Amino acid sequence: MNKLIIAVTTLFLFGSSVASECEITINGNDMMQYDVNTINVSSSCTNFDIKLIHSGKLDKSIMGHNIVIVPTDSFDEIIGMISMDAGIDNGFLPSDDRVIAKTAMIGGGETTSTSFDPAKLEAGKEYTFFCSFPGHYGIMRGKLSI
Ligand code: ZN
Fold it and tell me: Measured in angstroms, how far is the CA atom of residue 119 from the centroid of ligand 1?
């Protein structure tokens, strides 16, 4: 609980600083949760960095997490493509042109990151970030906008 209060306070104090607008760190845990549910990308960024930390202990084959960003209007179709056959190295998701960014899938204690060009995003359009491990997107998802 204290960690949550510190995180919220930190967000409040530094959330509007320029440095934080072009990057975000998201934690995933063994409870199948992210600690962030909204990402705002500044249009002034030439690059947006996303870092994912799995703060749990479970292996990625059991509680794997990644971050996939897609337009919200394509979300239902894209999650329909999630399949074990696509393999854990692909996040159980075949490649698709509508995917804006995708990190590697990681397990407890691991960290990964990716970045994308915010020019790929349309102002006023809503995007969804989620975990493509089978069954996780129901809980592990949030909104992203520019
Ligand atoms: Zn997951």
Answer: 27
**What residues have their beta carbon closer than 5 A to ion ligand 1?**
65, 131, 133, 136
What confidence score (pLDDT) does residue 3 get?
Answer: 58
**Neighbour tally for 40: CB within 10 Å:** 12
**This prediction's pTM:** 0.86
The CA–CA distances, whole Å, from 43 to 85, 103, 123, 124 equal 37, 21, 8, 12
Residue 16 has pLDDT above 60, yes or no: no
Centre of ligand 1 to C-alpha 44, Å, is 30
Residue 102 to residue 121: CA distance in whole angstroms: 15
The alpha carbon of 70 and the centre of ligand 1 are apart by a number of angstroms equal to: 16
Q: Is there a contact between 127 and 112 (Cβ–Cβ < 8 Å)?
A: no
Under 8 Å between Cβ of 25 and 53: yes
Distance from the Cα of residue 116 to its chain's centroid? 12
